[in-house]
Sequence to fold (522 residues):
Amino acid sequence: MPTNPFDRLRHLALKIPEGAQELLPLIDFLEAFPQQGSEEDLVHLVGVTAMGIAKAGQGGLWDGGKWLFLRGAAPAFPTHPGEDWQVRPWMYGDECYGHLVLRVGGLPEAVPLLLSISAPLLAWRRAEAWRSSQNQALALQLSRLNTVFELTRNLGVVETRRDLVRLMANTLMGEFRIMRLLVVDPQGQVLHAKGLGTVPESLEGEQLQHVVEARGLVHAIELVDQTHSHGFAYAAEPAVGVLSEDDLVFLRTLLNLTSSQLSSLELREARIQAERMEKDLDLARNIQRSLLPKTLPEPAGWQCAAANLPYQAVGGDLYDLWMARDEGNGDRLHLAVGDISGKGLPASLMMTQLSAFLRAMADHRVPDWGRLAERVNRRMNDVRDRNRYTTLFAGSLNPSNGDLRYVNGGHNPPLLVRANREVVRLSPTGPMVGLLPGVTFAEGRAHMDRGDVLVIFTDGVVEAENAAGEELGDGPLADVVLRRPEAGADELFEALLVEAFQHLGEGKFRDDVTLVVIKRMG
Fold:
């Protein structure tokens, strides 16, 4: 018997001669799907496979406005092509991606099956592409926010103008991969020159213009604050590509930060503000610590362990476990883990609001966690700061029978590692909370038998990167639990953190880290 699962399916299909002709192309399709890197590749694979199954020499996939895939001549009316043609919708749920149009007398049963298999795969591919795009944009914004934070902090401790300009120049060249940069003051004194060869100490008039043109310094931005100009920065295009409009806006932002520090008064004010900020952060840190549970509730037969490691002084992650009254049915263990977008004080403030909302709305039995998430979503949309939102996993455990009801609002799927070694991921039942007004959330259900373990985490855990840039992922977390079937919650919690730190090596977490472990003891 072949060991490859697809070869095994082919082996079994060949034992049913009357079905092999239609099953084998479907098996080939499923095996080839992961290699399709784009939506266009997947559409092409569906079209080729459908025509192969139906033995059609002419046909394609029509989306209502254009042919996504076409072989042979196109019919004049794709959805009503006439006799000797077959048309089938390509749908997933209420979403129609187009119609399969084939010139063939009869349509094999495997073709509708192919469409029903491939439509959710296309929906998943589109969702993954959207998520990847959003993650890239979010990662860029987070990186730039960190750059602003680091530059602001470092500018406050630099004492000389040249050192301050050098710091600004190194930040710009590193952030945008600019290889040539010139900074001059209003009198033409060269404050910084990099990648330009030998440059006079002073450049004015035509001499300055000649250097700018000869070295390809196509961007000229004034260093100006509220009182006066401190000179100009001249920059070349990046080593790869060109500066976009967003890049130029961010570049000006960094230069404006530098300009404000070039004034001695601004420098002194920045130091005072830094001291105030530190006091505010201490206060915020203490408030945030007071919101996290000091001790975790552990109903009879259950063990719990949890902790939060903020990326900065304060963070945007939340976890909470508390016992809620359910009159006549016994207490329930309520749990919540959230991850506010962004880092630092703004995320911490929004986390405080989310914690208050959850405690107020879920202090007693929650009839439907999806409806509760909709209420939280409305409140978060009312109070959120610009585009800040949160992922949220919240639910209720019945300690007596192990029933779990939950809602997952765009959060990393928690791992339910069963005693029989099955690993179940509790996928999202709705979008992120506070992102879109008026959205709906469904309630999910699961069950925990004796020996089952629930691991809830934020993306700071699974997106931890080692020196090679490889993310940890959730697979190693499940393996840690599977290797320790007799371990309690505290031991599993420690082992999971050890696994994450070993993966990081010499690196460090790039985001807030929250981890919750709940085990139903055997």
In short: The chain has 13 helices and 18 strands.
